[in-house]
Prior knowledge:
- There is one protein chain.
- α2 runs parallel beside α4 (115-122), α6 crosses α8 and α7 (162-169) packs antiparallel against α8.
- The protein has one domain: 3-Layer(aba) Sandwich (Pyruvate-ferredoxin Oxidoreductase, domain 3).
- It has helices at residues 15-28, 76-82, 102-105, 115-122, 130-137, 143-154, 162-169, 175-188; strands at residues 3-10, 32-38, 47-55, 68-73, 86-95, 124-128.
- By secondary structure, it is of the alpha/beta class.
Amino acid sequence: MAKNVLLVGVGGQGTILASKLLSTGLLEAGFEVKMSEIHGMSQRGGSVSSQVRYGETVYSPVIELGSADILVSFELMEALRWLEYLKRDGQVIVNNYIIKPMPVIMGTAEYPDDIPEQLCTIAQTTFVDAAAIAAELGNPRVMNIVLLGTIVKAMGLTEIKWEEIIAKNVKVDFVDINIKAIKAGMEAI
């Protein structure tokens, strides 16, 4: 039976890199893995999603509505947008981080202030302040790898050699900070 991980966020947050590292680690651990990504208007601050399915046998890269085991949202409102993909007993991990969409910036819409309450009434939800953790590490750009660490911990994938995966797939100058970030993410949940 395949496990389904849905990663969602806003363009520029590193959602795709996190999902590629996750997929690489799962492949090296011996799982069959399928990944798909949608990044439409991501360069303009639009929604981004990556679907990672893994298990003994995986036939499709697509996660059906109501079948994600875990939904990891890199931005608060994105968790609500994608919630319908979560299983009834699925888990949500949310970066407690706000990126206001253009209609909110332009004043034609409001950013809901009750998103945490909405999420908690619908699903088992864990909030992580990945931006603060990344800032403490000295590089706000590793927020995505902090969130990857939360996935690793939540899905029980800590035995995979993540340090080696990062070393092989990240520019040399950023290996150390990304290793620190994934460890911090594992500790945050």
